Amino acid sequence: MDGDCDSYDPLGVANMTGRATLLQTLCEDFRLPEMLRGLCLKQKLDLIQYFRCRRDQPFMCQMWAMSCDPHDPLARAYIMAGWAYLYIPTGAVFVFCVGVLLRGALCGKQGVCGCGTIPSDRALQRSVCERASALLVQMKEGNLDRTYMDRIKLDVEFAMLLADFLLDLNCLYQYAVSGKHWGFAALQATIVVITLVAELRNGPAKLFTSFLESHALGFPTDTYLRIVKSEKSIEAPLSLLLQYVAAFHFSDSPEAFLSTCVSMVFSVLAVTKAAYIQLHLGLNELLDVEDSNPLEDAPLPSQPPSFPQFPPGIDLPQLPPGLPPATTAVPKQQQGFSPPPAPLPPIQVEVRRYGKGHDRE
Fold it and tell me: Is the keyword Transmembrane helix in the record (predicted)?
């Protein structure tokens, strides 16, 4: 059965084994996705035409089989899921191509290098930097006013983060209970483990404590951003690719298929947000700067350093000539702050004459 539908002989096999056995044998063919086996057993799928399609157009047969048989409620559910599965990415590619063509038509040669390219506005950049510096000072002092809507947005983003992870666990469960696709299950489990290690390396409760701290402040903290970044940049894109490949093969349930599509939507949103905050806003560079300067915001000592006191009447011995004067011992400075260097003693040059033409220094 290497894609050649002529090798199927339904009448001949039916005469030997019976129609039910023939139908079950054909529907259990390893090349038939599980989502189509229910239609096959209900005799809602033309196997001869399906395998002929597999021979001529192997990449469109699943969609043809799911979208061209509206005689069964299960098939109608498959039609909606199948068209959504097919045309969401296809529509995205179409919109991208139309955008590229419009950009080239409107911008001409400049559209190749980027539509709307203009010289940088130094005044605008300076004002943005000044505004960012002022906001940073307000954040450190706790005087930055945050609205109730800002906290709601933060809560919604955290809820979507948890929902995306739970949907990925549901996909892992579907792969495992199928009993046939252990490869998909192993890949999904590996992605989940890598994500957990990246997110919970500072402790299982760190994610929730950092979220509560961010919610109290009204804006995400650096710790919360580091944890969320691992989920959006590691788990979301890998799970998206795996689920898109395995969606037709791991379950014969329309509900499970639609839940996989919902999981892919959440993954797309996470990848888009990660690309925006990491590439456009440069979050990685900011976090790297914070990691390289951990003592930048360290508090200064509240009291001046105390120097050792000597009892009155004690005179220090005189040092031989040429040696620098004694200095008072300076206590060890706080780590991260270097004391100013002590002034060097003056260099004295002595010239002695031993005779004409024999001067020595």
Answer: yes
Could you give phi then psi for residue 29, rounded to 5 degrees? Answer: -60, 135
What predicted TM-score, i.e. pTM, was given to this entire model?
A: 0.50
Helix axes 182-199, 148-178, angle to 10 degrees: 150
pLDDT of residue 7: 41
**Contact criterion met (CB below 8 Å) for 175 and 181:** yes
pLDDT for the residue 1 = 36
Tokens found for residue 210: 């950092």
Q: Tell me how crowded residue 270 is: count the other CB atoms within 10 A of its CB.
A: 24
Q: 267 near 164, Cβ under 8 Å?
A: yes
Q: Which residues contact 360 (CB under 8 A, 6 or more apart)?
A: 351, 352, 354
**Regions in the chain scoring below 50 on pLDDT:** 1-16, 69-74, 293-305, 307, 336-337, 359-361
What is residue 353's three-state secondary structure? strand
- pLDDT score of 86: 59
| Closest residue by Cα to residue 107 from 98, 116, 99 | 116
Residues 66, 80 contacting (CB under 8 angstroms): no
Cβ proximity of 307 and 262 under 8 Å:
no
Positive or negative: CA dihedral 211, 217, 220, 224:
negative
The residues with which 353 forms a beta bridge, in sequence order, are 359
pLDDT at residue 304, rounded to an integer: 47
Give the Cα separation of 13 and 127 in Å (integer): 81
Please give the DSSP secondary-structure letter assigned to residue 218.
T
- Residue 29 CB coordination number (10 Å): 16
Q: Distance between CA 217 and CA 214 in Å, rounded? A: 5
Q: What is the DSSP string of 162-228?
A: HHHHHHHHHHHHHHHHHSS-HHHHHHHHHHHHHHHHHHSTT-TTHHHHHHHHHHHHTS--HHHHHHH
Q: Return the closest-CA partner of residue 103 out of 116, 118, 120, 90.
A: 116
- Nearest to residue 53, comparing CAs of 63, 43, 40? 63
Evaluate whether 71 touches 45 at the Cβ level (below 8 Å): no
Locate the DSSP E strands across the chain: 352-353, 359-360
- In whole angstroms, what is the distance from residue 333 CA to residue 309 CA? 19
The predicted structure's pLDDT at residue 171: 85
Name residue 139's amino acid. Answer: M
At 5 the pLDDT is 36
Report the pLDDT value the prediction gives residue 6, as an integer from 0 to 100. Answer: 39
